[in-house]
Amino acid sequence: MAHAAQVGLQDATSPIMEELITFHDHALMIIFLICFLVLYALFLTLTTKLTNTNISDAQEMETVWTILPAIILVLIALPSLRILYMTDEVNDPSLTIKSIGHQWYWTYEYTDYGGLIFNSYMLPPLFLEPGNLRLLDVDNRVVLPIEAPIRMMITSQDVLHSWAVPTLGLKTDAIPGRLNQTTFTATRPGVYYGQCSEICGANHSFMPIVLELIPLKIFEMGPVFTL
């Protein structure tokens, strides 16, 4: 999870998030090169006497600064489109979870376990135990296996919400009357936190999401739910 004074992104826990971090670094390097080039040109403009009249009609220069930005945009667009299509792939998920947004809590349904349904509320400060995180911990966590493709079906019962877990690279809108889906495969066990990322009313900031990811062998021994 994020910590104070953090500059970079959270550590990746899924292949999609690893790709997003790689693309972020790729785009950032291009931005650094563009900024350096522009600052260098400004420095030369301010410190050099403009006595050369040959640059008043330079077709080659105009051709370069027209084609070069187009090449840069292609270098950014191609990996971006690749990741975009990767996030939409659904390849035979091992488990399907339905998440329903409410004002202001989440309802989860394990459709592969006889329709097990439970609500997940933020823990009030008076109920926090040592080690719990204020405004981030919930009474009922979502327990999921690692190294298995998980499909999340996300919708809402009242207003717009957004189901987001940054370390997994997930952010999907919960829209009333519409069922959106997203998939992920976690690579490391642990407890991962997210929040509603769509302004949904007075208590929008009190809709945390907590995923407890455990090894697949332990999950297969039987449902381990923190109810």
Folded structure, characterized:
The protein has 227 residues and is of the alpha+beta class. It folds into two domains: 15-88, Helix Hairpins; 95-221, Immunoglobulin-like, CATH 2.60.40. It has helices spanning 15-47, 59-87, 216-220, and strands at 95-102, 105-110, 116-120, 142-145, 150-156, 161-165, 170-174, 180-184, 190-196, 208-214. Strand 1 and strand 2 (105-110) form a beta hairpin. Helix 1 (15-47) packs antiparallel against helix 2 (59-87). The longest helix has 33 residues, at 15-47.
Low-confidence stretches: none
Instruction: Give, in spatial order, the strands making up the sheet with the most strands.
Output: 3-2-1-5-8
What structural class do the secondary elements suggest?
Answer: alpha+beta
CATH topology of the largest domain: Immunoglobulin-like
Name the overall outline: elongated
Query: What about the largest sheet?
Result: 5 strands, mixed
Structural domains: how many = 2
Distance between the termini: 23 Å
Helix content: 25-40%
What is the CATH superfamily label of the largest domain? Cupredoxins -  blue copper proteins
GO molecular function: copper ion binding; cytochrome-c oxidase activity; oxidoreductase activity
Subcellular location: Mitochondrion inner membrane
Membrane topology: Multi-pass membrane protein
Pfam families: COX2, COX2_TM
